[in-house]
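Quick one: co-fold with zinc ion.
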Amino acid sequence: MLKKLLQVIGLGVLLGFLVNPQGNFAQKSPGAQTVRDFQTINNIKYLSASRFADVFKVKTYYNPQSQKMILYLPEQRLKFSAFSSYIMINSEIYHLPNLVLPTDGDLLIPVASFTHIIQPHLGITMQYDASVPNLSVNYEPVNITDLIVEEKKNGTLIRFPVTRKFRETEYKAWQGNAGWFYLTVAGGYINEKRLSKVTPNGVIRKIVPIQMDGSVQFSFRLRERIEDYEAYQNSNPREIVVSLRSPAFNGSVELNEARDRWKLDRIVLDPGHGGKDPGAIGYAGLQEKDVVLDVTKRVGRLIEKEFPDVEVIYTRKTDKFIPLRDRARVANEQNGKLFISIHANSNKNKSVRGFETYLLRPGKTEDAVDVAERENSVIKFEESTEYYKQYDNEQLILATMAQSAFMKESEDFASLVQQGLSSEVPSRSRGVKQAGFYVLVGASMPNILVETGFVSNTREGKNLGWAEYRQKIAEGIFEGIKDFKLKYDQQVVDQASL
Ligand SMILES: [Zn+2]
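Sure, here it is.
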């Protein structure tokens, strides 16, 4: 059931390896190696840079004075220094969530995040499994060598030159929701970095190739809906071919139809908590679950009034308990185009007040991490918390990368909602922040979480108890939705007329 859900959601396979990290791939492949000799510091797993160099089969240079190290990768240099969280690959700079630490004549590198960053630069595939923990490395040569997109009269052809024949059960193409199309090839190996640079063409707007443990997934963002598709293999030249057939392009009627299909016409509103989970409890016993349900319904009514064509979907409309992970699933299954989780905040410091909007990303500031921890802690009301165990900070980095397709839009959306709230709500704007909220993990559409105010603050708690004030909040959120929708729909028009 979980597996099926993950296939439904965008880039689900990437999350799939997060929730099912029992890759036994290392035992099966001859060209494989499993690394387990990590050091644990503050709960983070580290591996020395020279051990990584062994794994990559490359040479190193270490300067003990400056505590800098270079790894000589094929055609690339990778530089680390002690007490820095930045690494440099040629001239590109990457940020690790933890510092590189010095050790006896060597440097210690945080394994999970580094593995994820370095993977696309290597001709080998690596999989870090935090639950064992181990790092499995595979030296399989690349067997899908290229990706070519060709625009044809009646559609678009995507050709994947391959070095061997794949069985029919090894590759699978399918159309996801929200304008994505996927091809997964079991046993496929690519140079991710190289294929990421392929220029989209025809009906394809964006290409996201992802090398996983023992398989590869290509995600294609489409400009418009396709009528039909087919995946097959040619032997001369040896290639996997995916053909995407476009609806007959016949003047402006079709153009408008294509445009309408991509309109932001389904918005998922998610009032936090409910039922046995009251959420934060504040001033005069005010419960977060009640405040946010009312705000959410008000937002829904504003949307329906202004945009009669937009369908508003609620994850709950009554005082009912809904597990966190079911909320994004509902949004995906209902083919939502926008996901907004609405909450109210609480703080031990009673003077703290204001509203803030969150993006799903590993927490940066202590405050943001506190808020995410509080909101995530409601899983204690669920029957099993097993599912969430993998979401430590480093795993969240991977989960958020699965959402990178929507990140730009989510950022835009978050800032518009925060602006809307600022113009309507007489309280303090605490800005757009980022943290690792479970409720947003897996949503395959632009998504944000709004903290509407602090029930723990006397003034704001009192305000949140008033219908007029909740209406103001709803209007602020609605303004953000409206601005985003108008902007998004305009972009769709522009793209359809390209
Ligand atoms: Zn909450």
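If it helps, Residues 272-273, 279, 288, 343, 375 surround zinc ion (CB under 6 Å).
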